[in-house]
Amino acid sequence: MDRIRLNSLVSNARACIADSKRAGVMRFSHGTEKGRFLLFHAAMSFCSQKVRATLLQRGVAYESNEMLILASRDRDGNLVAAENYGAEYVRLRRSGQVSSVGGLADGYSGMSSVSLCGLDACAVPTLVDLDTGEVIVDSLRICVHIDSAVGGSDPLIPIADQDRQRVFRQLDAVDATPHPGLLYGFHPHRDRRPQVLRDAMKTVYDEKLKTLAALAARHSTDPEVVEAYQAKISKESAGRAVQHDVVFQEAIRKATRERLVQLNLDLQQSTTDWLCSNSLSLADIFWAVSLVRLRYLGLAVLWEDLPLVEPYYRMLTSLHSIREEVINATMSSMPPSAYLSSETTARAF
Question: Residue 344 and residue 339: Cα distance in Å, rounded?
């Protein structure tokens, strides 16, 4: 993309962040690739955590633009839209839309995978590579791009073909795990999420839809932005429809369990401590983020009878990148969880 246009899109997207202290902040300034990468993200975002953990693990400096991704109330009690719903951010994100994705996400599966569900133009993360002029909007592609761009002697994606194939199979497995569905949904019998989180989720869809409708009306003369908002409204409406649906909630819990069973089998077949090769890979980073999120939600019960998953979890959570950008970020940005308390975390390390 032309550098002048890219700079304009980035500058306008930064303006969607209400607190300037969260915009344009240099992270890991001692790292490599200074001045190359800009990241729009959120501390609590599952997909953002994958990207930030990858950046830290590879020792990459980047400009942080941290967004608030849930609606809030102002002093008068008026609803304030999430920052990632801002029209200028939507324009930046749509500039990274690729034809192979298959359009905008307008349905709900409980997953956040761009490759499987389409582009949610009101989501995070978004990576801007100033060297190549690319805007990348899929967390899996972002992490692969970072690892490839940085190079060096400790890549997270192995060179050997068989190892690479194993890594990408695991990346796809995590990408297809219904993490948003588990976060937002009410399981009919075994809802183990923190109570504060459950209470917040009672109104989250109504707030999303109300702010999106207002934004669509405000930007009615901009077809590209309105199209994105309408797709998002359709997606969130579908999410609200299954939030208490017994069949859907059981199905996504079952799908998550099946992926954990396969993970245990893959760990049995691994000849090293790591999942796919002789050293840490991007597959391990992705699984670390997934397992921490599941534990936070009280879903470590899904692997209680899988003997290799818990030791694997404990090994992964000893990584500085996971402690900093996943565990600490979760604990600082989301309601407290007894399953991921500081005491529990300390024992895990």
Answer: 7
pLDDT digits (tens, 9 = 90+) for 79-105: 999 999 999 999 999 999 976 566 999
Instruction: State how far the Cα of 296 lies from the Cα of 331, in Å rounded to an integer.
Output: 9
* Closest CA relative to residue 126, chosen from 256, 12, 283: 12
Q: What's the angle, vertex CA 345, arms to CA 46 and CA 190, rounded to 5?
A: 60
Q: H-helix or E-strand containing 105?
A: none
| DSSP class of 44 | T
pLDDT per residue as tens digits for the range 127-177: 999 999 999 999 999 999 999 999 888 899 999 999 999 999 999 999 999
Q: Of the candidates 244, 217, 247, which has an alpha carbon nearest to the alpha carbon of residue 229?
A: 217
Report yes or no: 38 and 127 within 8 Å, Cβ to Cβ: yes
Residue that the structure tokens 């009280």 belong to: 298
Which pLDDT does position 151 carry in this prediction?
82
The pLDDT of residue 344: 57
Residue 205 CA to residue 239 CA, distance in Å, equals 8
Q: How far is CA 127 from CA 52, 145, 244, in A?
A: 11, 10, 34
**Measuring CA to CA, which residue among 196, 213, 210, 144 is closest to residue 175?**
144
d(CA 263, CA 326): 20
Strand bridging mode 79-80 / 72-73: antiparallel
Side by side, which strands form the sheet with 37-41? 25-27, 62-66, 37-41, 126-129, 134-136
- Residue numbers of the chain with a pLDDT score lower than 50: 343, 348-349
pTM of the model as a whole = 0.96
Q: Contact, 45 vs 124, CB < 8 A?
A: yes
Q: Kindly report the CA angle at 69 between 66 and 75, in degrees rounded to 5? A: 100
